[in-house]
């Protein structure tokens, strides 16, 4: 059992600058995209398809090594928990649709912010879209994950909704609230994922990377091993 994880803090980190991240070299190792399996401790639920996001596909797929690392991460969890993948590889079309949707949510939720402030907030929660920009999910190296209880199938309370554009979504949001169930749950997920080589972005407790430019940035690598994976 690996309960020691829950005692370790999630470190605070600077939020990345996309302009720096996108300059990191990519040497694509040409690993194929593979569907996330449905096993006892690792499952997929394609949430964007379920929520009828335009162009979303009814499948979560990631690079082969990412699938292996997810399996490995499940072995680092308490025995009654598993990992569910909500989204992984994502086309440019879906990325644009998400930008539009979450941009609208931010406009409605934060009407007092200027257009520039709203744009800056959107950048924290959704990677930019551009013809030459390799967004993390386009590589098949990003996974959006949460924990579920093997006995009930229920997702654990992580203290904010997936894709919720608020401060509560920042990975360390509950670090100083040990009485909240999300405090331990986020630590459990974070340490299991980092122990097998994933990196996390500061603004999203659910988002983990391996092999792509964000991973290279957060882990201090010289180059990424996954570039754009155009289609399944």
Automatic annotation (TrEMBL):
Keywords on record: Cell wall biogenesis/degradation, Dipeptidase, Hydrolase, Metal-binding, Metalloprotease, Protease, Zinc
Q: Which residues form the active site?
A: 204 (proton donor/acceptor)
Q: Where is this site: Transition state stabilizer?
A: 90
Q: Which amino acid positions bind Zn(2+), per UniProt?
A: 137, 144, 207
**Signal peptide coordinates:** none
> What chemistry does it catalyse, as a reaction equation?
D-alanyl-D-alanine + H2O = 2 D-alanine
InterPro entries the UniProt entry points to: A_A_dipeptidase, Zn_M74/Hedgehog-like
Q: What does this protein do?
A: Catalyzes hydrolysis of the D-alanyl-D-alanine dipeptide.
In which family does this protein belong, per the annotation?
Belongs to the peptidase M15D family.
Listed PANTHER family: D-ALANYL-D-ALANINE DIPEPTIDASE (PTHR43126:SF2)
Q: Entry's HAMAP family?
A: A_A_dipeptidase
User: What is this protein identified as?
Assistant: D-alanyl-D-alanine dipeptidase
Organism, scientific name: Vitreoscilla massiliensis
**Gene name as annotated:** ddpX
């Amino acid at each position: 059992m690996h309960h020691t994880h829950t005692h370790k803090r999630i470190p605070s980190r600077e939020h990345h600058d996309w302009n720096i991240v996108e300059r990191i070299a990519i040497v694509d190792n040409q690993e194929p995209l593979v569907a996330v399996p449905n096993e006892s401790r690792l499952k997929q639920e394609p949430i964007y398809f379920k929520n009828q996001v335009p162009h979303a596909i009814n499948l979560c797929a990631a690079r082969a090594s990412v699938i292996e690392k997810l399996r490995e991460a499940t072995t680092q969890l308490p025995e009654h928990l598993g990992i569910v993948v909500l989204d992984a590889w994502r086309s440019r079309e879906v990325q644009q649709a998400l930008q539009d949707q979450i941009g609208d949510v931010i406009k409605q939720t934060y009407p007092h912010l200027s257009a520039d402030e709203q744009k800056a907030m959107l950048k924290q929660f959704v990677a930019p879209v551009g013809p030459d920009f390799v967004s993390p999910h386009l590589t098949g190296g990003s996974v959006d994950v949460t924990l579920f209880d093997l006995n009930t199938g229920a997702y654990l309370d992580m203290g904010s909704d997936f894709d919720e554009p608020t401060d509560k979504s920042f990975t360390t949001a509950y670090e100083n609230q040990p009485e909240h169930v999300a405090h331990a749950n986020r630590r459990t997920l974070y340490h299991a994922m980092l122990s097998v080589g994933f990196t996390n972005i500061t603004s999203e407790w659910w988002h983990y990377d391996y092999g792509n430019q964000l991973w290279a940035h957060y882990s201090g690598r010289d180059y990424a091993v996954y570039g754009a994976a155009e289609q399944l």
